[in-house]
Amino acid sequence: MGENTDWRVELNRAGVGLHELLSEGMPADNPDDWVHRLEDQLGELSRALTGFCSDCDLGLFDECIELAPRLVPQVNKIRTEQVQLQASVQQQIARLHTQKPDSSLERSMADIVHRVDQLNHHAVDVVYSAYETDLGGPG
Predict the structure, then answer these.
(1) What is the DSSP string of 21-76?
(2) Residues whose CB falls within 8 Å of the CB of residue 34, separated by 6 or more in sequence, listed in order
(3) For residues 126 and 66, what is the distance between their CA atoms, to the nearest angstrom?
(4) At what angle do helices 103-131 and 7-24 cross, to 10 degrees?
(5) Does residue 61 or residue 73 have the better pLDDT?
(6) What is the pLDDT of residues 52-67, one digit of tens each?
(7) What pLDDT sits at residue 139?
């Protein structure tokens, strides 16, 4: 991933990858391999989320606010969601090192997948509202 990375696409891709891993389910016979893959996927998600947040903080949302000041509450909500989601991802990575995986882990991961999807959609909606341009979303 280089300077021209589309972090929105990478964030979506990482969320889909996590969803696919969760769909497989944790195998009873080899949970360690699955947990290792989960940790890798969470790392990818964390990197994509960091890039996504950086891109948005480098002026995209400020431009949206300049074009449409009415979007300030939505932009602030997205920025809060970004911080909370990044903290959740880091917490789950740490959790993988401190406790055995169980069904609550899978539920937590499913929640993160949902939140990534929501964050992506909220960001696209704000940009669309500001520029009145459809950026095309996943799905």
Answers:
(1) HHHH---SS-HHHHHHHHHHHHHHHHHHHHHHHHHIIIIIHHHHHHH-GGGHHHHH
(2) 21, 24, 26, 27, 101
(3) 12
(4) 150
(5) 73
(6) 777 666 678 888 888 8
(7) 47
Query: Hey, how many other C-beta atoms are within 10 angstroms of the C-beta on 14?
Result: 24
Q: Cα(115)–Cα(34) distance, rounded to whole angstroms?
A: 22
Look up tokens 């991961």; give the residue: 109
Long-range Cβ pairs for the range 119-123 (8 Å, 24+): 119/11, 119/52, 119/78, 119/81, 119/82, 119/85, 120/8, 120/11, 120/12, 120/15, 122/74, 122/77, 122/78, 122/81, 123/8, 123/52, 123/56, 123/78
8 A C-beta contact, residue 24 and residue 34 = yes
Q: How far apart are CA 113 and CA 18, in angstroms?
A: 7
Give the predicted TM-score (pTM) of the model.
Answer: 0.77
- Give the pLDDT score at 133: 55
Residue 8: exposure state from Cβ atoms within 10 A (0-12, 13-18, ≥19): buried
Residue 135 has what DSSP assignment?
-
Mention every residue, 6+ apart, whose C-beta is less than 8 A from residue 24.
Answer: 34
